[in-house]
């Protein structure tokens, strides 16, 4: 084995249920920047991405479209691979869970865990959320909705295999507590420990019999392996785990970092390490849960018509503008926002102005004052040192930020140098030096320093914006662009002749571009297809439902249930308590005093230990991205009938 430093980084494998949006693109671009940086700094990198192709949801979509699941995913996966090409993603391997070697590995893993007694056969009875591919207990699936995504869950009752999660829980808690770097950022670690691990883990259902699009359990082929066990195993099957061809596994495992969105951190920090413990394998060194990219402050969804397609953005602004925004605008570990206007303004200020102008001004002056020939730095002054020191400190600062996976900070360090170089032009006023023949050497030195600062920036930026790094280096005819070469401020070769190059980031007319985008959005706005109408009922059927006007007297969140609100309502002097799954849409204070409609003769039920005496009516989009309670606009005696 070589003693080279290795670095293994993964993205989640994406569901090819629809084409990917800007949010999924973020994870992959961030992983790409890290992979490129590690390669540049001498690591032997394995960067894995891919697609998670099995499961009920994909089977259903394919059935609706009248194609086989494999044909359906083949087309979407090809699109995903095209997107990664467009985004300049330098993955080393692309895994598809429909690949034969992966399927074999998953079957072997399942068998081993069964043979060693960690998996047993039982019966599953509970709730299942198909879009999230998640099982929920009665107390978790509140109001018949998935506690993660809020969509309706379905009952699932079937023979199934279970994994004895609880057997490993204590070991995992200890591991997490003794390895503070394992779950990052810190807040996510506490969430996992307090919300999931410490309250006690239930055994996990790990097979399904109600659909067939999955990896069959080898010794019981009526069952397919639960998608999360199938999916998580990709991180080791891709390296040849448990096969004759396991050199990559020996070389790269354990993984340095699994980069995942915050919604799937639970699977990566509880299920996955427990599966690995059961297999007797080392655990990944780190799982980093990044925040979400919101659009105009809200979640992206088809029905809102706010899904941002990275391909459209790249076609308008280029790959690196999109990469820059994603890498710089999502704060370290928390949610970020996409907004077209902020995006365009950022491209103008940071890329066109700060970086692009620095390059074009510098090359233009070398061409104008020295026929393009780079001069040696023979006439130094004190003022140069500040620029030079910032340049020399920058790589260490970038490295420190990257090691914490703080990519916006790393970019800020590079931009500190770029902005300092712009200021240096204003301070040294080369156009004034140019008027004085005696200042030629000084002018040459100033321009040398600017070119060298740009070379530093180009090397450091190349992991984030690879095309831009290369373009700058081509225009400056940079000879050496290694990471080592930016430890000394002397890598630029005097005597080389520069030519006028293209503007790397043309300035964008903000108003005109926004208007163009609006027009595009209008044209593309999807119209929600109405759900098919239910079976006809008689007036007598309808009259069985007793709908009454009630006034909301009090309202508060239900502890430990982020989707629920507890309402106290007045029904003609009677006070009732209603638990309603509307916490995502209303703050308690928004509802107090409102007149809403109650299904007053609905049998009382307990939700999360709280009694609910009736149901509040609400209208929502099919994907639940928007919801409004049915409200009576003005005061009406409570208890009035709604007919
Ligand atoms: N297939 C599973 C992952 C299995 S990994 C063993 C899955 N796929 S996904 O396609 O739904 O999501 C993939 C990644 O995209 C997740 O990390 C998720 O957090 C991320 N994102 C989806 N929407 C996002 C945003 N709006 N913003 C940032 N990332 C988001 O989950």
Automatic annotation (TrEMBL):
This enzyme's EC code(s): 6.1.1.10
Coiled coil: none
EC top class named in words: ligase
Motif ('KMSKS' region): 299-303
Chain positions recorded as Zn(2+) binding sites: 129, 132, 146, 149
Keyword Cytoplasm: yes
Similarity-based family: Belongs to the class-I aminoacyl-tRNA synthetase family. MetG type 2A subfamily.
Superkingdom of origin organism: Bacteria
A Gene Ontology term for the protein's cellular component: cytoplasm
InterPro entries reported in the protein's UniProt record: aa-tRNA-synth_I_CS, Anticodon_Met, Met-tRNA-synth_bsu_C, Met-tRNA_synth, Met-tRNA_synth_2, Methionyl/Leucyl_tRNA_Synth, MetRS_core, NA-bd_OB-fold
Residue ranges of the motif 'HIGH' region: 14-24
Name of a matching Pfam family: tRNA-synt_1g
Species of provenance: Clostridium cellulovorans (strain ATCC 35296 / DSM 3052 / OCM 3 / 743B)
The protein, known as: Methionine--tRNA ligase
Domain TRNA-binding intervals: 541-643
Cofactor(s) the protein requires to work: Zn(2+)
Transmembrane segments annotated in the record for this chain: none
GO molecular function, one term: ATP binding
This protein's UniProt keywords: Aminoacyl-tRNA synthetase, ATP-binding, Cytoplasm, Ligase, Metal-binding, Nucleotide-binding, Protein biosynthesis, RNA-binding, tRNA-binding, Zinc
GO biological process terms, semicolon-separated: methionyl-tRNA aminoacylation
Subcellular locations according to the entry: Cytoplasm
Oligomer status and interactors: Homodimer.
